Amino acid sequence: MKRFRALQFRLGAASPNEIKPQCIAFYRWLVQRVTLEDVEISPDNPIDYVPLSYEDIGQNNQCTRVHAACTAAFAEGRSSVDVFVVDVEGPASLARSHISIQIAHAVSLAIAEEDDRTDKRDMQFILIQHELPPETESSRIILAQHLESGRVAIFSHAGRSTLGKQSPRRYNLEEFRLKLTIAQGSPEALLSRKMIRRVGRFAMRGRKGAIECSRFFYDGRYCEAEIASLLEDEIVRAGLPDDCRICYWCPDSPWLTAPAEAVALRLGLRATDLYRIESPSAFGADDYVLLLVDCMVTGRTFAGLLDRLLDTGLDSSRVYGVTVLAASPTDFQSHTRRMEHRGAIYEVSYFMAIENGTECDWCEQCPGYTNRQEEYLRLTADEHWEMAIAAGVKREEDVPDYRLGMPVVIDYPQVVDKNAPWLVSKMGVLLAEEGVEIPGSNLFVCPLDEHGSSVLAECLSLLLNLDVVGIPRETVDTFGSDNEPLREAEWRRIGEKRPIWYVRLGGSVGRVGLLDEFNASGRTLLGLRRVVERFGKDVSCMLVLNDLNPEWSEHQDVNVLSLYGWQSY
Amino acid sequence: MTDGPTPERRPNEPKKDEPEKESAKATLRLLARPDIPSDLRRLIVQDHVYKCANIGDTAHARDMEYAGLRLYTEKDARLPGSSASFAFEDKVEFVQTRKSIDVVIVTTLTQEARAMKKALAIDAQRARDDVLNGMELWQTDFVQDNGRHLSVMVARTADRGPTECAAACGAILAHYIPGCLLLVGIAAGIKGLLNLGDAVVSQRVLDYEGRRAASDGDKKRPQYYEPPKRILRNLDKVLDDEAKPLWRDLLSVCIQGLRDTRGVELPGSLEDNVDESDWEDGIIASGYALLANGSLPSFQDEYHDKVRAAETEASGFAATCREQGIPWLVFRGISDFGGPDDSRTRRLWRLRAALAAAAAAAVFLRLAYEPANEEDLF
């Protein structure tokens, strides 16, 4: 039985907070998967919570609280703890490399000290960070030897790890991410995973009133519950009076209406849709208004709404501003964006920071603005390539054994990381419009632990409530081959081992869909199909982000649905 | 988002996909951007070629495809070890190794080539610029009235007949990427509708040879070829009366220039005839037979009332251009009426008739022809 202890750094937090039970469960699960042994939490000080304020994060030297907290926790637990989990939590925008370096240094120091002892113990360290540091980054270099030996493992929030080839046998990515999302548990975490960011060129009114181009358009249709929860928390936290009136503005964002109305109903407040009334009725000197908008980029709309309210006689000090999305926040710690209007300062609270998206070098080539209200069924060429340009290209990873890697492929994992909610929402519409029956058991299968399809799988679960089972790559490849004896041998092997995916797929009811990030030769989809059919189940459709071999797809007797495609293979 | 103007809300409709032509335009715009890395451009150009292949309008698709391939090949070396399809690699190689020409004018007879060179002000004594399997080619820079420069090439194929003309066009297309092909030369016209020395430009080409040999007799199965709409819209600009004086002026200048040339045979009182000459659009019948039996007028009843002339190359020419997606037109000057006693007339009038067609083609290029370019395609 291994004992673990966790140290959680919370970026942007001002004071200690309660560690949720689901978070402890996540650590327990992760330690168990890494050590492959039964685990229990250390009974003495199981979790250390270290808030790192904005000022703390700004300090770039070795003697900050991060290093000190790590050293203290490691020293305190050295006699009774087998595994230390160090988790850096909070907004990704606050992550700084010097925090990782300090943690790495403290870990390295603890291992060196332990190894010098005569009664040394084989301590392990699991570090959870926003991104996996590149091999050339200092923190990775400091830990290189221990990463190699397996005493230290780093995990990114996306589920990538330094375990390399060992990781697929220990856990799968979608499972990791789902558990992390549940662990983080906050509506904020879910909001950031479910908010759709559509790519295009959207007309918006700039700071000086001229129409400008914005590259992104946000759609919160899948996160109404999270927005309602955050809004309610915000009203309670700010201590707004009971007679406060919620005035909301969301002509382009119908997803804000229900949360605003629901919260008003729950708290017994009045709610007013400013878009639907000519002018708000006059306010008295004692009235209090929560002005709620969907998004704040330039602040011009917010200022216009303030004008409407103040012109009715409302006192500027009795307006509390909230926006669901905000570009260029002024204070990450307090989640606010400051704006000055008619001589008054407003600290507008926001729930999610977004990219500005107004910097575009190619406006002169722009064929016209994207229609916010209409969207093509599949991705347009502009949409697809804008995402690809942002993600870049790479040599193909996760190449099946039966073919050579392609010289360059779009970095699909990056594309998916940044755009998963949008892509998945389009997949949902595509399935519906094409009349493809959603599998009765809501089950899709995909290759296990390939980053792109895993992120898609997680998002399919979160947004469309579909269940996705990952099948190990070697099994998919074997079933995709023409060697029938080999396929039979693999079938017998997995039947004896009965891995989790085998049990889940075998126990499913109805038809099953196939999912992959892109299709090149068709062999992966064929392999997945044969696995599913070996269980005696029918395949309902093959769903891919990009079909690079439409000629192959046309010859299949099952619908191959893709959001984009061209003949490249 | 709230910072933009409020759009109109529309009822839910079945969702559609972006039209292939719009996708191809988008990929073309991306290929014109200098900030995209070459390995990504390679993927974009593959996509561009694929989208162009799915566009129904072949002439436009071809223009789009070549424009994209040119943008790609101008800026990027080919990457080794690509797994892209052979068809794509062939297209890249094609664009890299072929020379682009705005217009190639195909002629058959020596007199036709001479007339065309005269109309384009190419010195008759100038040596040819290229030879393809015995086919002579002369290239010139032609300036349109709007100041745009066109690279124009005159080809003399030497062999008569639709198959031979198709083969000659195939040879040209194997070495060059023309923006447009014109066929210029002589034809027999319908007496009473046209005079000797008039010109006809193809509204359509009628291949009248097609037939089914049935037990109860042959059944006619004619085939029509229509030039692409874009080129017909260009042509409309010079079919009005305003362009005709220009044509007659150019024709007079060419006749005067050739009259003084040694060894050139031209019919008498030509200047008078020029004032009475005219040109119009109509259907040009095309087949293997050189009509000399007086049957041409009956084509109006048998095939189409807009038939104006008959000759022996246009059907092969038009079929090749259509297959390759290249914009095309046929200009024919009337050298005879296809009657049994017209041999001498034809011999006497063929240079004069070729000049009429050549001058019409030159006026078309000068005033009306708009080459497809990247800006139009965006």
Structural description of this entry:
Chain A is α/β, with parallel strands linked by helices. Chain A contains 20 helices and 21 strands. In chain A, strands 1, 2, 3, 4, 5 and 6 form a 6-stranded parallel sheet that branches. In chain A, strands 10-9-11-12-14-13 form a 6-stranded mixed sheet. In chain A, helix 1 (21-35) runs antiparallel to helix 8, helix 9 (187-194) packs antiparallel against helix 10 (224-238) and helix 13 runs antiparallel to helix 14. The radius of gyration of chain A is 26 Å and the shape is globular. The model of chain B is unreliable at 1-10 and 77-83 (pLDDT under 50). By secondary structure, chain B is α/β, with parallel strands linked by helices. In chain B, helix 1 runs antiparallel to helix 2 (38-53). Chain B contains 13 helices and 12 strands. In chain B, 42% of the residues lie in helices and 22% in strands. In chain B, strand 3 (135-143) and strand 4 form a beta hairpin. Chain B folds into 2 domains: 20-97, no CATH class; 100-372, Nucleoside phosphorylase domain (Rossmann fold). At the A-B interface, strand 7, strand 8, strand 11, helix 12 and helix 13 of A face helix 1 and helix 2 of B.
Question: Could you give a quick summary of the protein structure above?
Answer:
Helix content of chain A is 38%, strand content 24%. Chain A is α/β, with parallel strands linked by helices and 569 residues long.
What is this structure's SSE topology?
The complex is a heterodimer of chains A (569) and B (378).
Chain A: E1 2-11, H1 21-35, E2 39-41, E3 47-52, H2 54-58, H3 65-77, E4 83-89, H4 97-116, E5 124-129, H5 138-142, H6 144-149, E6 152-156, H7 167-170, H8 173-184, H9 187-194, E7 196-205, E8 211-219, H10 224-238, E9 245-249, H11 257-267, E10 270-273, E11 289-296, H12 300-310, E12 319-327, E13 336-341, E14 344-354, H13 381-391, E15 393-394, E16 409-410, H14 412-433, E17 443-447, H15 451-464, E18 467-471, H16 473-480, H17 484-497, H18 500-506, E19 512-519, H19 523-534, E20 539-547, H20 550-554, E21 560-565
Parallel strand pairs in A: 1-2, 1-3, 1-4, 4-5, 5-6, 9-10, 9-11, 11-12, 12-14, 17-18, 17-19, 19-20, 20-21
Antiparallel strand pairs in A: 7-8, 13-14, 15-16
Helix pairs in contact in A: 1-8, 3-4, 8-15, 9-10, 10-11, 13-14, 14-15, 16-19
Chain B: H1 20-32, H2 38-53, H3 58-75, H4 86-97, E1 99-107, H5 110-119, E2 130-132, E3 135-143, E4 149-156, H6 162-175, E5 176-189, E6 199-207, E7 211-214, E8 217-220, E9 223-225, H7 229-236, H8 244-259, H9 270-276, E10 279-286, H10 299-302, E11 307-311, H11 314-324, E12 328-336, H12 343-367, H13 374-377
Parallel strand pairs in B: 1-4, 1-5, 5-12, 6-10, 10-11
Antiparallel strand pairs in B: 2-3, 3-4, 5-11, 6-9, 6-12, 7-8
Helix pairs in contact in B: 1-2, 1-3, 2-3, 3-4, 5-12, 6-11, 8-9, 8-12
